[in-house]
Amino acid sequence: MTAEAQTRPTRVMIVEDHADFRELMKVLLDRQPDIELLAQAGSLAEARDQAAMFEFDVVILDLGLPDGHGEDLITDFRRSNPEVGVLVLSASLDPASIEKATRLGVDEIMDKLAPLDEVLSTVMRLGSA
């Protein structure tokens, strides 16, 4: 890890179609001095646009999006930044989606009901990997 990576905050993007949950995550992440929320997206298309403009350390990804499946973004993120940490945070954790996300190289899968401190510690761990 470079000295720059050690001193700068973990850069995060949230991909979540529910605006209220996105706002909750924004408030939570904004309170963390070691995390910088760079972008938010509510769809596959918005996420692809954001990924083209910014480089993230961690992406918090919902699987159920209005214009497709969140796991379809994993390959895109890995192609543009192989080191990005991908955390699936979703209420729709059906076995087929979990298997596909795992096969595509997701780093961590958590239910949206997971304790917030666990979500934060996972984001920090993925950002420092």
Written overview of the protein:
- The protein has about 130 residues and is α/β, with parallel strands linked by helices.
- The protein is about 45% helix and about 25% strand.
- The protein has six helices and seven strands; from the N terminus they run αβαβαβββαβαβα.
- It has a five-stranded parallel sheet with strand order 2-1-3-6-7, with helices on both faces. It has a two-stranded antiparallel ribbon with strand order 4-5.
- A hairpin with a 2-residue loop joins β4 (about 65) and β5 (about 70).
- α3 runs parallel beside α4.
Task: Looking at this protein, list some descriptive labels.
129 residues; alpha/beta; 5-stranded parallel β-sheet; two-stranded antiparallel sheet; 45% helix; 24% strand
The main sheet orders its strands as 2-1-3-6-7
Proportion of residues in extended strands: 15-25%
Q: Approximately how much helix is present in the residues?
A: 40-55%
Looking at the structure, what is the overall shape? globular
Summary, kept brief:
With 129 residues, this protein is α/β, with parallel strands linked by helices. It contains 6 helices and 7 strands.
Secondary structure elements and pairings:
Blueprint: H1 3-7, E1 10-15, H2 19-30, E2 35-41, H3 44-53, E3 58-61, E4 64-65, E5 68-69, H4 72-80, E6 85-90, H5 95-103, E7 108-111, H6 116-128
Parallel strand pairs: 1-2, 1-3, 3-6, 6-7
Antiparallel strand pairs: 4-5
Helix pairs in contact: 3-4
